């Protein structure tokens, strides 16, 4: 079948059609996915003028010198706003459609950011339209307050922070996901819980609310206690993360306060105190005042790897040389020669 119009509108049409035609005497589960907030952030014509002519504030770290602050992680990322060394600089990829051009690296980053963030916000506005349509249907049928509604994503996303776009790394903007839940029977509106959750908890959470036994094979746990405002004493204190798709290859741990990051080709590492450095601008790995904390976090990482059955040997065998940048993306980097 072929459909005309904006994809998210058509997806929602199908979702609403299914809701209307379901057996209303039985419980239901609906998962509605929107891929829009990914490059190239396509949006419908109705939002084409959103924020037109307005300069969106830049993130503080847009012009960070990542080669100096984080050469093995931020400095090796695949997708930059503008870095001539990166495989996919946003500025060069979209240079032909940018409203203006520049040879200055800082201005190139700013121009790339404004182009991307305007498209992103217009795309998300269209997603909001369709989330609203589903909520309005549930309300009209009188079942909204008896329906567990979860708004989430498959990962976070950089919008210019650290001169990056895309995701993949253990840093906060990439690692953290939105997770907004509505169920007024049990969840108080406006409450926030900052304990550590993972996407492997989504399935157990939904099964818990549905009254279905959680299979032993599921590694996650139900987030229901946190959603009720509880703080279980035995809740997880750290999460393990590893990325070995392409450079920068790395693994590490994110605890309630700290983050420790290792790389396969060196004993150098990165360490962040998220309480005092929530935007991860200062690598404290060489700070003598952090030695004891780093050692304790390293021990916590080792215990977590043992619990999950992952060894350093396994990681090293599956990670290639982190010094090798991924192949260039095909983005044009030098002006085309004019025909004589």
Automatic annotation (TrEMBL):
Pfam families: SGSH_C
Chain segments carrying region Disordered: 319-340
N-sulphoglucosamine sulphohydrolase C-terminal domain span: 160-306
InterPro entries referenced in this protein's UniProt entry, alphabetically: Alkaline_phosphatase_core_sf (IPR017850), SGSH_C (IPR032506)
Name of this chain's protein: N-sulphoglucosamine sulphohydrolase C-terminal domain-containing protein
